[in-house]
Amino acid sequence: MGIRVGVAGASGYAGGELLRLVAGHPEFDLVAATAHRQAGQPASVVHPQLAGLDLVLGPTEPDALADADLVFLALPHGESAALAAGLPETVRVVDLGADHRLRDAAAWQRYYGGAHAGTWTYGLPELPGQRPAIAAASRVANTGCYAVATTLALAPLVAAGVVEPADVVVVAASGTSGAGRAAKTHLLGSEVMGDLSPYKVGAHQHVPEIKQATGAVSLSFTPVLAPMPRGILATVTAVPAVAGADPRAVLAEAYADAPFVHVLPEGTWPHTAATLGSNSCHLQATVDVDSGRVIVVSAIDNLGKGAAGQAVQCANLMVGLPEQTGLSVFGVAP
């Protein structure tokens, strides 16, 4: 028997990707998966890509998950804390929701509302000191999808003093799966195809998380809904703090030993299709010849490095496995 794993919220897009990754993991045994409205349905009916997976979705309650050694929570924001509180302390938990990411209760209240559930170890292994912290933790708060793409592009530059943390601008386009699986008019194919549309402009909930993770002081963030199922392309710009610094070299040095972060060769720019199905982040950086601003472009699969893949990476560290176990660094094409 391997490590017994349960997935709560298994009917959603991130939950389905978790089922796929856990079922193919060499050291994990998928023993339980839960849902709300889809409880009682076979996982292969809810997720046709998982044909052959012999598992019925149970109700989302602690008893359905208590026999697992490790539980992933892929629930809507605000629903993880109550379920996690009902699980035995011996069960390791990775929360894909936002409930436990923020240290600042006032920021939680401002962007999410309701009571702040407290702060867990932040689940981004590539940040300095986070690998050992995650490995020692029994509760880990997985990063937000936009936060991963932006933080990996920005954090090393702020830490090295290469850019000013007080003037950061991010424009990031995401595929529709980032909005969840619930039926919504603005996500219908007829509404999305051939269209780009900004949303939550000036008030996106990932802003305080990105500032917390990167050290940015002021952040202007504009998310854009793109007509594709998966992927995030983030363009991050900032004012240089020192003259003549090479932002690409700083990123390359910071991620020299990071298996999932790839600083692309000079002149090669990230695009989302290249990260599809992987747990990788592709980065490229330059300095704008006109404005002088540092520009970093970042690409990820929002359901991979932005959600389920990142969660498995953290879980691997928590149970003492190499962080790459069961995950691919390579994308799927075409």
UniProtKB/TrEMBL annotation:
Q: Name one GO cellular component term.
A: cytoplasm
Source organism: Micromonospora rosaria
Q: What Enzyme Commission number(s) does the record list for this chain?
A: 1.2.1.38
* Localisation: Cytoplasm
A GO molecular function term, named singly, is: NADP+ binding
- Pathway listed: Amino-acid biosynthesis; L-arginine biosynthesis; N(2)-acetyl-L-ornithine from L-glutamate: step 3/4
One matching Pfam family is: Semialdhyde_dh
Q: Which reaction does it catalyse?
A: N-acetyl-L-glutamate 5-semialdehyde + phosphate + NADP(+) = N-acetyl-L-glutamyl 5-phosphate + NADPH + H(+)
Function recorded in the entry: Catalyzes the NADPH-dependent reduction of N-acetyl-5-glutamyl phosphate to yield N-acetyl-L-glutamate 5-semialdehyde.
CDD domains tied to this protein: AGPR_1_actinobacAGPR_like, AGPR_1_C
Its protein name is: N-acetyl-gamma-glutamyl-phosphate reductase
- Extract the NCBIfam families matched here: argC (TIGR01850)
Its GO biological process annotations read: L-arginine biosynthetic process
Q: Keywords in UniProt for this one?
A: Amino-acid biosynthesis, Arginine biosynthesis, Cytoplasm, NADP, Oxidoreductase
Instruction: Identify the residues that the record assigns to the Semialdehyde dehydrogenase NAD-binding domain, covering every copy.
Output: 4-135
Enzyme class per UniProt: oxidoreductase
Report the active site residues: 145
Q: Which family does it belong to?
A: Belongs to the NAGSA dehydrogenase family. Type 1 subfamily.
